[in-house]
Amino acid sequence: MEISINVDDSVSDVKVVISGSDIEQLADIAQYLKSKSTTSHQIVIKTADDMRIIDKTSIMLVTSFGNDLTFTLKDNQKITTRKTLKKFLEENQKSDFVQISKSEVINLAYLSKMEAAFSGNYYGFLTNDTRVTVSRRFIQGILDTLEGSSEDAIF
Predict the structure, then answer these.
(1) H-type helices in the chain, by residue range?
(2) Is the pLDDT of residue 103 over 70?
(3) Where is mean pLDDT largest: 31-45, 66-80, 132-146?
(4) Spatial distance between the Cα atoms of 10 and 58, rounded to a whole number of angstroms
(5) pLDDT for the residue 106
(6) Where are the beta strands (DSSP E) in the chain?
(7) How far is Cα 21 from Cα 25, in angstroms, rounded to an integer?
(8) Which of 38, 42, 47, 84 is such that its CA lies 20 to 30 A from the CA of 32?
(9) What DSSP state is assigned to residue 110?
(10) CA 133 to CA 136: how far, in whole Å?
(11) How far does CA 108 lie from the centroid of its chain?
(12) Which CB contacts under 8 angstroms, 24+ apart, belong to 114-118?
């Protein structure tokens, strides 16, 4: 068996090509690759002083201010790094993170309830009693994520 890896900057995702004459062996290799998950449960946060490796499930809230992100962890510890909110969301598309406003993202695992607020916005309450404002612009995305469909949502 020969294995070769080609790095191609023009390809935006990973592309795997399997070639050979034994169809059963090729099918086994393809099935094995499909069964492997490439999503990581950890995230590396580079701060001014060090690099922190934390479990994604411990992140409750991500707040953006310019090009700085502040991560609020479940133990109320805060970690700040240089990264945009857009970049963070791109890197964590398959996680429970949802954008709730122009500058905030929450981990849905820590959302305990939502209440109607002024002007069509909502207040979201996290499990540590932190209140966040959920912009009306992002309500539909949260409902879709929580329920799969917002047709019979009662908010």
Answers:
(1) 23-35, 85-91, 136-147
(2) yes
(3) 66-80
(4) 35
(5) 96
(6) 42-46, 51-55, 59-65, 68-73, 78-82, 97-101, 104-107, 111-116, 122-126, 131-134
(7) 9
(8) 42
(9) G
(10) 9
(11) 10
(12) 114/142, 114/155, 116/155
pLDDT in tens, 52-89: 999 999 999 999 999 999 999 999 999 999 999 999 99
Question: What is the chain's Cα-based Rg?
Answer: 20
In one-letter notation, the amino acid at residue 14 is: V
Cα angle 34, 37, 72; round to 5: 155
Residue 136 and residue 118: Cα distance in Å, rounded?
Answer: 10
Under 8 Å between Cβ of 107 and 113: no
Residue 32, classed as helix, strand or coil, is helix
What CA–CA distance (Å, rounded) separates 79 from 57? 15
